[in-house]
Amino acid sequence: MAGITKHVANWNERKCLVLFREVPGEPENALLIMTGELGATQHDELISVVDSQEAQANSDLAQVLNGRNFSDGRIMLQALHADGMITKAPVSEVTMTPTPNDKVALTDLNDSIAQIEAGKVNEKPNLADTSEMDAINQVERPRQLSEREAEEQTGIARGLLEQADMIEQDIDRVQQQMMADANSKREEAYARAPDLRPKPKPGRPKKTAIK
């Protein structure tokens, strides 16, 4: 796809897609899809969605994938989660590659977006400008949503909740894998040098029965 392409990145010199720029509650980590680990069909179908106008116009790839299906009928986001294709990685190690010749650190991108969002929050309108006052009034008194619009908002909200649940499950899975790996290395170390194994702490002396 010519021009700038969103969501494409590198991690440890491996191509990937950024599913979440920041893990909720863990801004130092991101969630990635390692494209090299995907099957051929799954890879081509996923890249086709990433290149779509919808994905390129949306800063949240996960939201787009939650509304698209693989050819086997499964929702893309849920299928990637079920197949263990979502990887957590430090934001500081991820580099966005919007073009073959451009590289942007994900840390810098997140900082820039945070500054822009903070500027929008802190921006104070000119009270003499009636158009801005009209906009403020519209925000303060939103119009009543139609039944169809309300259903759409409910659907989007449910999708976001599903994404949050899947992120939490991925975090638990990664933590369990890390703990298992740490325990395995620790046992290997003790097998090589048994003297390094911590000695059990002495227990309390047993109470003698009063006769």
Short description:
This protein has 211 residues and is α+β, with helices and mostly antiparallel strands.
Main beta sheet, described?
6 strands, antiparallel
Structural class: alpha+beta
Q: Number of helical segments?
A: 7
Query: What is the CA-CA span between the terminal residues?
Result: 89 Å
**Number of extended strands:** 6
Low-confidence region ranges = 124-143
* Radius of gyration using CA atoms only: 25 Å
Mean pLDDT: 78
Q: Give helix % range.
A: 40-55%
Shape: elongated
Determine the strand fraction and express it as a percent band: 15-25%
Strand order of the largest sheet: 4-3-2-1-5-6
What sequence of helices (H) and strands (E) makes up the elements?
EEEHHHHEEEHHH
Task: Describe this entry's structure for a reader.
Helices cover 48% and strands 15% of the residues. The protein has 211 residues and is α+β, with helices and mostly antiparallel strands.
Secondary-structure map with pairings?
Layout lengths: L7 E4 L2 E7 L8 E6 L5 H11 L2 H4 L4 H5 L10 H7 L3 E5 L3 E6 L2 E4 H17 L7 H11 L6 H46 L19
Antiparallel strand pairs: 1-2, 1-5, 2-3, 3-4, 5-6
Keywords:
single chain, 211 residues, alpha+beta, 6-stranded antiparallel β-sheet, 7 helices, 48% helix, 15% strand, elongated
